[in-house]
Amino acid sequence: MKKNIVLVEGAGFCFGVKRAIDIAFDVAQKHKDNVFTLGPIIHNPQVVEKLKDLGVHPIDDISQEKIKTLIIRAHGIPKEKFNEIKKLGCEIIDATCPFVKKAQNLAEKLASEGYQVLIIGDKKHPEVKGILSYAGEKAVVIEKENNQFDKDEKIPSLDKKIGIIQQTTQPLHKAKEIMNRIINSLSEFEEIRIFNTLCNFTSKRLEETKKVAKEVELMLVVGGKNSANTTQLANLCKEIGVKTYHIEDAQEIKIEWFSSAKKIGVTAGASTPQWIIDEVIDRIKKFTN
Ligand code: SF4
Fold it and tell me: How remote is the CA of residue 132 from the centroid of ligand 1, in Å?
């Protein structure tokens, strides 16, 4: 039976990831030897494989290879790492997303002006580790595993002057929850500065996914299993209560998933290429037409 397939607006590559990948493919055309990315350029195994075929390999340990050109991915890297790479004397191609760069620059500026920097985000995420390295010694990250902030989450004791920034991909309502709690204790502070470092691409995709998830019976969330923002999309759909499958590619789709669903939604994380989304749609059509 023919099904209705709804693709979420803005599913797939965000601006920063597309930019980083374009840079990596461009570098692959120009430089043939000893080109590396520090870690995988994105959390998508298929794209990483394509780049490997063109001679661009991910590495974690910069001391293990003879590096001529090193590409820094969209999440950015800690300041100390950047300085370490500089010492190697190789060519550095910095593909850090401009939104992440903005958060790093703000963190550095606030710290230099004497503010204690508070980052709302996931401590283990590479982007946050990078921002934190610019934020001075007193900086703190407020986080909770899987980004679920409890009502009782303890806010660490803070200085009188604080500057708040957010991991770019934080959901707005979670960031607001923390910021409201700090503002409610305004009397304890001399000054609170809040900067918006959230990325619109992420919040828009979350909003659009939410809309679609509410009107379909089945959601397929496409993207790397290790991609934080794809997992966030899958969790959002599950929270809404719609049957959800997180898949990396079309091959994982099973025909029996579609037996009772009349309307199927498809969304994809920021690191999912359009060709994988197209293959997923084609396979759904093949199974349901
Ligand atoms: S999600 Fe936003 S901040 Fe992160 S890489 Fe994409 S555009 Fe940049």
Answer: 17
Nearest atom, ligand 1, residue 200 CA = 2
pTM for this model (two decimals): 0.82
Q: What is the bridge-based pairing of β-strands 69-72 and 116-120?
A: unpaired
Domain boundaries, the chain: 4-12+201-288, 15-98, 104-198
Q: Which of 201, 227, 230 to mutate to test the pocket of ligand 1 (most atoms within 8 A of CB)?
A: 201
Q: Is 127 a catalytic residue?
A: yes
37-96 pLDDT, tens per residue? 998 888 778 889 999 999 999 998 888 778 889 999 999 999 999 999 999 889 999 999
Q: Do domains 4-12+201-288 and 104-198 have the same CATH topology?
A: yes
Query: DSSP per residue over 94-152, as a string?
Result: E---HHHHHHHHHHHHHHHTTPEEEEES-TTSHHHHHHHHHS-TT-EEE--GGG---TT
Question: Looking at the domain that runs over 15-98, which CATH code has it been given?
Answer: 3.40.50.11270
Q: Which of ligand 1's atoms lies nearest the C-alpha of 201?
A: 2
